[in-house]
Amino acid sequence: MYVPTELIQAAGALPVSLFGAGGSVEISHADSRIQSFVCSISRSTLELGLRGHLQVLDGMVFPSICDVARNLSGVWTRNFPDRLVEFLHLPQNRDSPSAIAYAVAEYRRFLAALEKLTGRTVRPEDLAGAIEEHNEEREAAAALLDLRRTTPWLLDAWESGLLIRAGSVMERGAHARMLRRAVAAAKERDRKPKDRVRVLVLGAFCEQPPLELVRTIEEAGCYVLEDDLLLGLRWFREPVVADGDPLRALAEAYVTASPPSSVSHYRGTPKQDMLVQRVKELGAAGVVFCTAKFCEPALYDQVLYKERLEAAGVPYVHVEFEEKMTTFDNVRTQVETFVESILFE
Amino acid sequence: MMAATQPVAPSAEDAGKALQKQLLAEYYHSLSDEGRNGRKVAYLFVPGNVVELTQCFDMLPVYPEINALQCGIKKVAGDNILRAENLGYSSDVCGYVKNDIGLMLADRQSPFGQLPKPDLLVCNFSGCNTFVKWFEALAHFYGAELFVLDVPYLRERSPSKADVDYVTAQLEELAAVCERITGVPFDRQRLRGVLGQSVEAERRWVEVLHTAKAHPSPFDAYFEAVFYMAPLNILRGTEGCAEYYRLLLEDLRSRVHEGRGPIPEEKFRVVIEGPPPWPHFRSFWELFKRWGVCSVASTYSKVGGLFDQGIFHDPSRPFESIAEYAMNSYTNWNLGLRLDLLRRYLKEYEADALVIHSVKSCRSFSVGQADFRDALTRGEGIPTLMVESDLADPRYYSEAQLKNRIDAFFESLAHRRLVGG
Fold this sequence. Notes:
The structure holds two protein chains of two kinds.
Chain A: H1 5-10, H2 40-50, E1 59-62, H3 67-79, E2 84-87, H4 99-118, H5 124-150, H6 157-166, H7 172-187, E3 197-202, H8 211-219, E4 222-227, H9 246-257, H10 271-282, E5 286-292, H11 296-312, E6 316-321, H12 329-343
Parallel strand pairs in A: 1-2, 3-4, 3-5, 5-6
Helix pairs in contact in A: 4-9, 5-7, 6-8, 8-12, 10-11
Chain B: H1 12-31, H2 33-36, E1 41-43, H3 51-55, E2 60-62, H4 64-73, H5 77-87, H6 95-105, E3 109-110, E4 113-114, E5 120-124, H7 130-142, E6 145-149, H8 161-182, H9 188-210, H10 225-228, H11 230-234, H12 239-258, E7 268-273, H13 281-289, E8 293-298, H14 318-327, H15 335-348, E9 353-359, H16 363-366, H17 369-380, E10 384-389, H18 399-418
Parallel strand pairs in B: 1-2, 1-5, 5-6, 7-8, 7-9, 9-10
Antiparallel strand pairs in B: 3-4
Helix pairs in contact in B: 4-6, 5-6, 8-14, 9-12, 13-18
């Protein structure tokens, strides 16, 4: 999820985003440290750590996601005492006039820890430069997502997911260039629109579904106009204006310009109402909830989403996934039935 | 407000139950249509709550967590949970939340009368993100106003000035919201007075907890403490509450003097971590009693405040001390601090072992407990038993399995003692 990676970059470190092990490791070591009733991403990330696969990283940052992620920061602190471990408490009461000052203090605390780690003193221009590069990357990602929204047949959701995810291990500038090339290439594709229903996919903002699952949803007859996959990597929709104090600008952006998400409280229009509004704006025919097993933030929110969608007469379907999921036949049948019900309505 | 006027009966078990019943009856009556007298209702969470503040606006506090545990004890939580699941809540989310949603769907008819709707939801989300989701849902269903009081997690040893400033500023904002809703002007002096009552109860409660250092302990600091702590969690800031702890302390001191404990013979002293399985409270307790196990300290009895760690309200610094109190909720402490607290309890209360009851519902409590076990058993040689069930959902309680684990653990402790290991 969202971490102000600009601070990491400005301190001279490479931000790397982890998304668990995607079913590639058997959970054995992590079982002794964390119970089985939590999501795959927490368990497999810890497993990777305990097996020594994350030795390449100098530190781990846990942002405000959920109770599990927060407590995992404590497990990490004890098990990896030679690494930097930070939990970021991002402001949840974003309506409070004091939220920005608090976020500034939290970012400064984090930056100080990063400076200690890298031995570099971050000047305002370093941070402004990092923000600029992140803006460029977010702009390229927005163009990619726009393409899907308007001409979904040119770029599949699983492809765009992969392209965005590449940024989790790349320099921002290089990733921005890659995304721009991808958009240009997709526009050149000789693809015609198919008879598919247009949907939004919601619920996989943190733990990522197997790529095959997203592909299955599309192949079952859906164009995914929008999704919240990897939301944290493309958090802001507008550029962060780094005038004046860049750290303050970044903190202020979090408070005032964060998108609605299941991991932060949003007091404006309720998320469920915004979803109905978004469905209408985009002319989507329905919503596919795609949630990770045990993911509490997604599971709570979707009850409210479903209520509002039902009231507005918008069809939806719910699929649950786990990292180690390998067969998708049930999902295919489920989504095909959903698509048919829309097509033959 | 009520006070415990009768002396506590010799059996702490019965007395605790009777007192709890008496206190709750009065409290729940105040929530009824006849008892409310036009007062507005604020829903609050127990950890880090701001009841002293809402009290200044004559608001009645409703604690959905306490309703949930009561429903658990009265064995109606299972039905409530099923109702919420029928609405679409997953089997994998918190049973307390589902109990509350289920109650709402049943027109808020609880075993203790019909609960009032909220006029204000104050999400003092100290140490639990699920709290936010819970009150977002209630705001959705009731159309009630929601105030999210953001309480930063204790990332370091103590809250920073920025953390305290942030929470304090929000408390000022919350006071303005309460003023608007109730029409009662905020009176800082009144808040100081209420906080004064709270501190008195808090200090006596700490003394109550300390009596468990005696051998044998005069009470079970888990199975009985959860009843003893009820007034502090429900009626804090009132005269009756402070009086209750004066009487309780008196009673416990006399028990210490007489060498009387909650079980015939105290064979094992344990520290217990985690909430109890409310729907099976009694049978769970029995599994320990039969081994002569007495809990001498527990973390669950601290969810309403870590007063024994020197975290008290302070009438001279009203908002700052409420802020510090909120940030110092047990589950708002980072795991390192929590583990250190367990170590201190084990040592100061001369416990033989740590028992962890891990509940699926509450990840904020549970995630990290397996790591505590690893640290204490492997790292420090402290016998640690970890068992799993749930605090609200009766479906997760497997008596036979729990019994096996508990028997094996205490059998081995007994054996170890016998051979002098």
